[in-house]
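Cross-posted from the bioinformatics board.
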Amino acid sequence: MIEIAIFIVALGTYLMRFLPMKFNFGDSESSKEFFTLSSTSIISALFVTSTFTFEPHELSVRLLALILTALAYYKSRNFGISIIAAVLAYLFIKEVAKNFNLLCLG
Amino acid sequence: MFRKGLAYSFPIVLAYLPVAFTFAMVAKNLGFSSLETLLASILIFAGASQFALITLSGKSIFTAIPVPLLLNLRHIVYSSIISKSYRLRMPYISAFGLTDEVFATSVNLKENERFLIGLEVGAYSAWVGGTAIGVFAGSAFLLDDRISSALVFSLSALFLVLLLPNLKERHLRAAFGGGVVALAFHLVNLSSLGIIVAAIAGPLLAGWRND
């Protein structure tokens, strides 16, 4: 089933890239603006749903790591470096939080 | 010109390798096979929508297909702009590799189609290569729970990094509107539907009018 989804998304993505080159689609200013605003909304929606969790401890770790990710992005302006920084920041904060919890309980 | 395009793809290559590697590891962690993971990168070649596809396919296949496609609507705009900036003799080839970063680089430099294809070949090689490395060399990392949860978190980081450069003027309102709508749906366990509603509500909340 997933292979079918991959093929449909691949075909749809290719056609969205190819057809406007061939036939000048999405030419009106109004539709261009809708597509670009919609893309931003979707990315924001994906960001919110992938970040939010009902577990407060995990949510705190994620939010702290995201602040560091944003700082890494503004410092480097590099996609790859920011993602690596995000993963390292998350691991670091999670480890510190775990040790802090152990100290408090101990 | 092709070589020049290839050389200009270097910053994109640097950025794509770790992201593609992460994509492969997250996909494997979510239960995708090596073949499915590689197939997604080889055939789709669109980072954010690939992440959306693997994230949502666990919930429902019916939202896993439209959401990545909605996410790629911006490519219609990219292609329209490129078709006006470049004289394209082979649009069926040039179209395939038109990602956000390739578009941003090519639209600024305004070279010729060979340059564009060189840029795309560099970016595509890094994307597929990074995925292959993740698929074949990343399995050792997946045994560790901490690494697994960090890689799942990298999805949030990816979407944040994609979002940050767009947070200007009306896009800021679209992002805020889309985010609030998505969160509201997420809180009542309708996350996938929330993303589709956000795609339509975001532009309207940002003041878009069909003139």
